[in-house]
Each structure stands twice: as structure tokens, then as C-alpha cells.
Design a protein that fits this description.
single chain, alpha/beta, TIM Barrel, 2 domains, three-stranded mixed sheet, 9 helices, 29% helix, globular, binds iron/sulfur cluster
Length: 309
């Protein structure tokens, strides 16, 4: 199966487009809202009516921030959702379900989308952005896979990935038939330790290379030592950590939310050390890493994955 459609390319969390006398803005991250606001003001200045939606608009605080320059969605869930908005962020992206069966406190998904809702007629495209594929009912997972097989589209990136509590050998066997990309899971707190260890053992036992076992590892939601234990374990168990500092759900800047014994500087340094794989060569232990020596950009955006690394 070869994909001949549009390439995977993320815009970085903000998309905007014009249809007739209307301008539409879709904002994924709250820290992109200041930029969204500038676009709204610009579109108004050229006579367009501006409407804004997207995950960043789920909270009443962000709605208030935009309401004087754009038509703002109101109500529960994601009332401003616009068909095709996701493909404005990435023309190769799609989604087959909204919501999640879990309720992680640091995550916007339960707040914004609630429990699972299925979108069985989703457009079949190679980047699949469902929040929690392994938590979906078995028959719906089979439905998604069946549609990829029927349409001959390769799954190149299960972008939000799988939830360790529901990942199993059965889930792996089901998805390996179509998943050509990395296996993404999250290890967000030590409560998930046994689940993620088991999930990684399944992947590594099946011969999946470390580079294709990518584990989102949240930083700053637990004290330093607990977070670093998770980072170290991901490496020890044969995967690669992708570290994301904790942020407030309504933050208008990309600054970390500092809690416990962390500092903002340390959160950024650990993320840079881990995400640039410096543990492989420069400093196997973070404690031996000197962040003042610039070896990698402070933070850059990988548009193929849609991640800040
Ligand atoms: S499992 Fe993932 S998508 Fe679901 S609530 Fe937790 S962090 Fe969010």
C-alpha cells in the first residue's frame, strides 16, 4: 500500500481560511490564541466575518479572550466544530472518534469532548488522530481497520496513539495489520507503571524497534524524581521518551506550569535532553547534561509529527 495523496504536514496548531465573506480560524493550542487573535483582527479589517473554533476554544476563559474579535462557539462539548477543519491543520489527518473513556485531570479531551462518540463515516487518511484507539469498543476498532483495508490507505501515524491500560496483545495484533508508523503510548504518572511496562514488553517482544516505540512522558505533574523514574524506565524498557512539560489548560503562552520541586528551566532542559535523544550519546544521565551548552535548538516544531521537540 502506497499513499499517493497529500503529505502529512501540520500547521503548528493554528489554521485559518476564507470562504466568501467569512473567515474561519481553528486553534488547537491555547498558546496559539494570541496569534489567532491577530488573524481575527486582520480578517475583520478586510471586511470578513470571523468565526473561531477548535480545542483551544473549549474553555470559557479562552472564549472570553476571543469574543470581541470573532464569533465564538458557546455551550457544552465543542459546538464550534467545523467539518474539514482537521484537514486544514494537516491535509493527511483524520479522526474516527471523539472523546475518551478515561478522565485524566491534565487533559482537555474529557472536558471538551466527554465520553467516546464514533464517527463511522470518517474520511480514510493516513494520519489518525483519535485520542485513545485501544479504549474504543473492539467492534469499532475493527470497523476503523476494515475501512483502511477496504480503501487501501496505509496508516502512517496513529497520532495520539494507545492508552496503556487498554493496550494488550490482542490490541497489538489487531492494529499491527495496518499500523506502519510508530507506536505511541503515554506514561503520564507512576500509577500507570505496570500497564506501560506490559505494553512495551508486547511491542519489544514482537520485534518493534526502540525508535518505533514512542512514549509520551509528562513532566511536572509529579515531583522531579518520579518523573525522571518514568523517563529512565521508558529508556530501560526499550522505547524512546517524548517529554512534554505540564501546561495549564488555558495558558496563552507556551510556558510550563511549575509545580512540586520543578523549575521552568529544569522542565525545559529535561524535555530538550530527552526529545533530542541526548541520553543516547551526549549524557546518558540527565544529571550529567549541561543545558548551557547549546547542541540543539531551544524548541522546534516537527511538522510531520505535529510535535514541539
Ligand atoms: S487517556 Fe489520553 S486522551 Fe484520554 S483523558 Fe487521558 S490523556 Fe486524555
Amino acid at each position: 500500500m502506497k499513499w499517493t495523496g497529500p503529505e502529512s504536514q501540520w500547521t503548528g496548531g493554528l489554521a485559518h481560511w476564507v470562504v466568501g465573506d467569512r473567515a474561519f480560524i481553528s486553534c488547537a493550542f491555547t498558546f496559539k490564541l494570541p496569534e489567532a487573535r491577530k488573524w481575527a483582527i486582520y480578517y475583520r479589517s478586510i471586511g470578513k466575518t470571523v468565526a473561531i473554533g477548535g480545542p483551544a476554544m473549549a474553555h470559557v476563559k479562552t472564549q472570553k479572550y476571543m469574543e470581541d474579535v470573532a464569533i465564538v462557539p458557546r455551550g457544552a462539548g465543542n459546538p464550534g466544530r467545523h467539518d474539514g477543519a482537521l484537514q486544514r491543520h494537516n491535509p493527511a489527518a483524520t479522526i474516527a472518534s471523539r472523546g475518551c473513556s478515561e478522565k485524566c485531570s491534565f487533559c482537555i479531551v474529557p472536558f471538551m469532548e466527554g465520553a467516546f462518540s464514533e464517527l463511522p463515516n470518517f474520511p480514510v487518511l493516513p494520519v489518525l488522530c483519535d485520542n485513545n484507539l485501544s479504549g474504543l469498543p473492539d467492534d469499532y476498532q475493527d470497523h476503523i481497520i476494515g475501512r483502511y483495508k477496504a480503501e487501501g490507505v496505509p496508516l502512517l501515524d496513529a497520532n495520539s496513539g494507545f492508552e496503556p491500560r487498554t493496550f494488550s496483545a490482542k490490541v497489538f495484533e489487531r492494529w499491527r495489520v495496518i499500523n506502519k508508523g510508530v507506536w505511541r503510548l503515554a506514561y503520564d504518572d507512576l500509577v500507570e507503571r505496570d500497564f506501560i511496562r506490559e505494553a512495551m514488553a508486547i511491542l519489544r517482544g514482537a520485534g518493534i524497534a526502540p525508535r518505533k516505540v514512542q512514549i509520551y512522558t509528562l513532566l511536572g505533574n509529579e515531583p522531579y524524581e518520579a518523573c525522571m523514574q518514568r523517563v529512565r524506565e521508558v529508556i530501560e524498557w526499550g522505547g524512546e521518551p517524548f517529554c512534554q512539560p505540564l501546561m495549564k489548560l488555558v495558558s496563552l503562552t507556551r510556558d510550563p506550569h511549575v509545580k512540586h520541586d520543578w523549575t521552568a528551566k529544569k522542565l525545559r532542559a529535561v524535555a530538550r535532553w530527552a526529545n533530542n535523544r541526548m541520553w543516547r550519546s551526549v549524557a546518558p544521565r540527565f544529571e550529567d547534561y549541561d543545558p548551557s551548552v547549546r547542541r540543539a535548538p531551544r524548541a522546534r516544531y516537527d511538522a510531520t509529527q505535529g510535535l514541539f521537540i
